[in-house]
Amino acid sequence: MRVRVSPLVAGIGLCALLAGLPVNAKTGEEADTAELLIALVKIGRAIVSEHQTLINDAAKGNKGFTDDVVGRKIVEQFLAETRIDLSHPSGHSQYESLLAMLQSEREVILDAQPAINKQGIAFKGFIPSSFARKAGQKFFAKTGIKVKLTSLDSRYPGNQPDDFEAEVLRLFADPRHPRGQRYAKVTVVNGKPAMRVMSPEYADAACLVCHGGPEGEQDMMGMKKEGWVEGGPAGAISVVMPLR
After folding, report:
1. pLDDT 10s digits, 131-157
2. How many whole angstroms separate alpha carbon 54 and alpha carbon 206?
3. CA 99/CA 97 separation, integer angstroms
4. Contact by Cβ (8 Å): 15, 162
5. Which of 84, 97, 134, 204 has the fewest Cβ atoms within 10 angstroms?
6. Global pTM?
7. How buried is 207 (Cβ within 10 angstroms: 0-12 exposed, 13-18 middle, 19+ buried)?
């Protein structure tokens, strides 16, 4: 079975910039998987964002925002976007990685239950970006595939871009780069070939609460705002997938 993917990855032989390594069916499948992993991260993060008011409700104890609830919502949305049903896994090679990411996202929600359900405190520090970061860390421990949010303005040290990511982030920030177009490249990481896929991110209203203006003002987490504007560059989701 071949999944539905974006024109960029589906046409990787034409659209990706490759570092002289062979492009074959396996390489294309790895790129497909990277794009689907990005979709899972975005869906999970959006669900956390949609429930942020509930999470930060100081008056309410048990929020009912459990890993079962979130997992079900992710599966439903992922099915709607990709036509892949993660509630009925098959023997397809991509499912193992996708299910590992789903499980990682559920584990993050489960770990956060004490904070989410704590009464008397409004801001719990559990936000979409921290959810995505922790899910990526758990996923890496399971699979060896790195999925992270990164930006030239990254606040968390582990999300700082490497040289490759910094170069692509500058490309994404260039107004001449087609908005939303991803970047894929087969390169060498730690002496071994790897598929690298980056998906540009753009600031929405929820991002601006912490990252908007005025630049330098303290946000709710006690950090300085970056002065982002709605619709402007906000980093990328980066995937580093070893090629076997």
Report:
1. 999 999 999 999 999 999 999 888 788
2. 15
3. 5
4. no
5. 204
6. 0.84
7. buried
Q: What are phi and psi of 156, to 5 degrees?
A: -90, 125
For residue 218, list its beta bridge partners. Answer: 224
Sheet of strand 146-150, all strands in order from the earlier edge strand to the far edge: 146-150, 233-242, 192-202, 183-189
- Please report the beta strands in 136-232, taking only residues with DSSP state E, as ranges in sequence order: 146-150, 183-189, 192-202
Residue type (1 letter), 123: F
Query: Tokens 């299910």, residue?
Result: 99
Query: What pLDDT, in 10s, does the model give residues 42-93?
Result: 999 999 999 999 999 999 999 999 999 999 999 999 999 999 999 987 766 6
Q: How far apart, in whole angstroms, are the C-alpha atoms of residue 164 and residue 19?
A: 12
* Identity at 146, one-letter amino acid code: K
Contact predicate 21/186, CB 8 Å: yes
Euclidean distance between CA atoms 172 and 4, whole angstroms: 24
CB 31 within 8 A of CB 184: yes
Site of tokens 């580093």:
240
Q: How many CB atoms are closer than 10 A to CB 98? A: 21
Cα separation of 180 and 91, whole Å? 31
What are the tokens at 213?
Answer: 């203006």
Q: In sequence order, what are the residues at sequence separation of 6 or more whose Cβ sits closer than 8 angstroms to the Cβ of residue 240?
A: 145, 146, 189, 194, 195, 196
Given the structure tokens 């991002």, which residue do they identify? Answer: 207
| Residue bearing tokens 């062979």 | 22
